[in-house]
Amino acid sequence: MSNKINAKASEHILPPLPYAANALDPVISARTLSFHYGKHHKAYVDNLNKLVAGTKFANLSLEKIIAKTAGKATSTAIFNNAAQSWNHSFYWSSLKPKGGGEPPAVLKKKIEASFDTVDACKKELATAATSQFGSGWAWLVLDGTKLKVVKTSNADVPLTKGMKPLLNIDIWEHAYYLDYQNRRMDYVDAVLEKLINWEFAADNLGQ
Ligand SMILES: [Fe+2]
Questions:
Q1: Dihedral over Cα of 79, 59, 138, 187: its sign
Q2: pTM beyond 0.90, yes or no
Q3: Is the dihedral of CA 125, 189, 135, 206 positive or negative?
Q4: Are 130 and 98 in contact (CB under 8 A)?
Q5: Distance (Å, rounded) from C-alpha 126 to C-alpha 137?
Q6: How far is the CA of 180 from the centre of ligand 1 (A)?
Q7: How much distance in Å is there from the Cα of 3 to the middle of ligand 1?
Q8: At residue 7, does pLDDT exceed 60?
């Protein structure tokens, strides 16, 4: 009995969204959010739980699973589902209703030291997002003492390259296709202007 409870308690859970499903409308519609969160994100979490059950990866945190499976051909499916579970939770927090605008002072100073201006940083994020061929992610990261924009393919996450993620933008088609069809640039521009959560990035900076 107690084992059963423990096993259940150690399962990865789909964390609640940090806002209502219609809170990002009209930039990201409730319909997109309900599929993206309720179907895609949920499937990564469910698949991960199935894949790790009874393996040496059971009972490990997402971060530990990601670190132990990155680049290992024998555990690609576990890596993909663990990283996508992590990436999506991070993405929901990278957005907020009435986001955009000016970053908090500490982050702004750091952005200006690395990119000159906040606009230049946003432009790099937009370029990374629109130039990624196929599915992936655009990220603002802390790399050593500097901020950088990087893009990753599919489930890849900068955590595995020793970089500290500050925020991300999902550029898989499932993130925008219902609202923007093939216009990825319009989705990314709207996210950067109206939803990006600079406070979350500043918190992740930890300074
Ligand atoms: Fe996604």
A1: positive
A2: yes
A3: positive
A4: no
A5: 11
A6: 15
A7: 34
A8: no
